From TrEMBL:
Name by which UniProt lists this protein: CASP-like protein
A single GO molecular function term of this UniProt record: cytokinin riboside 5'-monophosphate phosphoribohydrolase activity
Reactions that this protein is recorded to catalyse: 9-ribosyl-trans-zeatin 5'-phosphate + H2O = trans-zeatin + D-ribose 5-phosphate; N(6)-(dimethylallyl)adenosine 5'-phosphate + H2O = N(6)-dimethylallyladenine + D-ribose 5-phosphate
Regions that span the bilayer: 217-243, 255-281, 301-322
Alphabetized UniProt keyword annotations: Cell membrane, Cytokinin biosynthesis, Membrane, Transmembrane, Transmembrane helix
Cellular compartments per GO CC: cytosol; nucleus; plasma membrane
GO biological process, one term: cytokinin biosynthetic process
Length: 327
């Protein structure tokens, strides 16, 4: 295959999983597409993850990638090794217990997916990764990066997938996916929530520390510390959300969501406790006429802003905690 200068580029994908059959098929166009895809991966400096067989379409694509000097990872169930491995294998072959583990390992080690001609097994593998994307289990691109001339191999039944197909239910309303729920990290709603948490917290701490006698009550000092922590936390997550939206990168990662959930829980609990104590002290000193009207008003404002910030954190905590169940 002749490689043009336009194709000599480094892909943003390190490894791509190729689903294909262990048979060469009845048409030479299937074999040509496998070799061309292998050369395409080599030209883009992409490693191959595939079903591990050394025969058929998968044998051709793996051999092409291996001959081009790129790393090949083959994942194959032990029960299929006598049937799909003949002669010398290429690259790294990993034996797994069953088909379910094979698909899980292939998805784990891949950054994107491509489907070449194959049988029912190839179609089932393709539909499974599309289903996983629909459910928000992964954010990896589906089979859409092949040139059109390579995908139209004798008019295949499976064509490039640019968007995940969603079957509408009876009421014609498509089901919401977790990654599309506004308020989840990396969404516009999440960005707005973080801003609504940061601004009241900043106002609260600013009003409190500019009141001369706030140090007279331990509760007020605790409020300053708690709300300062809340404002720094919310500002940090605001910046992370803004960056994720700017570069269009998903934050759907179990460790990230878990960290956000724990952080929201800790900061909101501290803010609520400090605001409640400060509210009680403010009412007490106001009833006892222990502070002038201006200072009491400022204390009340700081406490009110702290409660607003705490209230704005609650949706973020609930959504993050809820989304953990989808992993």
């Amino acid at each position: 295959m002749e490689i043009t200068a336009e194709k000599m580029q480094i892909s943003r994908f390190k490894r791509i999983c190729v689903f294909c059959g262990s048979s060469q098929g009845k048409k030479s166009s299937y074999q040509d597409a496998a070799v061309e895809l292998g050369n395409e991966l080599v030209s883009r400096k992409i490693e191959l993850v595939y079903g591990g067989g050394s025969i058929g379409v998968m044998g051709l694509v793996s051999q092409a990638v291996h001959d081009g000097g790129r790393h090949v990872i083959g994942i194959i169930p032990k029960t299929l090794m006598p049937r799909e491995l003949t002669g010398e294998t290429v690259g790294e072959v990993r034996a797994v217990a069953d088909m379910h583990q094979r698909k899980a390992e292939m998805a784990k080690h891949s950054d994107a997916f491509i489907a070449l001609p194959g049988g029912y097994g190839t179609l089932e593998e393709l539909l499974e990764v599309i289903t996983w994307a629909q459910l928000g289990i992964h954010e990896k691109p589906g089979p859409k990066i092949l040139p059109q001339r390579m995908m139209n191999v004798s008019r295949p039944a499976v064509h490039p997938v640019d968007t995940v197909p969603v079957a509408p239910p009876a009421n014609d309303r498509p089901p919401a996916r977790m990654k599309d729920v506004q308020g989840i990290p990396g969404t516009t709603g999440g960005l707005i929530l973080r801003l609504s948490q940061f601004v009241p917290a900043l106002i609260s701490v600013s009003v409190m520390i500019t009141t001369s006698d706030y140090r007279s009550a331990t509760a007020f000092c605790c409020l300053v510390l708690a709300v300062s922590l809340q404002s720094l936390w919310s500002l940090s997550l605001f910046i992370i959300d803004a960056y994720a939206l700017l570069v269009k990168r998903s934050l759907r990662n179990h460790l990230i969501i878990q960290c956000f959930t724990v952080g929201d829980g800790i900061t909101s609990t501290l803010t609520f406790a400090a605001a409640s104590a400060s509210a009680g002290i403010t009412v007490l000193i106001n009833d006892l006429n222990k502070c002038n009207v201006n200072h009491c008003t400022r204390f009340e404002t700081a406490v009110a802003m702290a409660f607003i910030s705490w209230f704005a954190v609650s949706p973020s905590f609930i959504l993050n905690f809820w989304s953990l169940a989808s992993f």
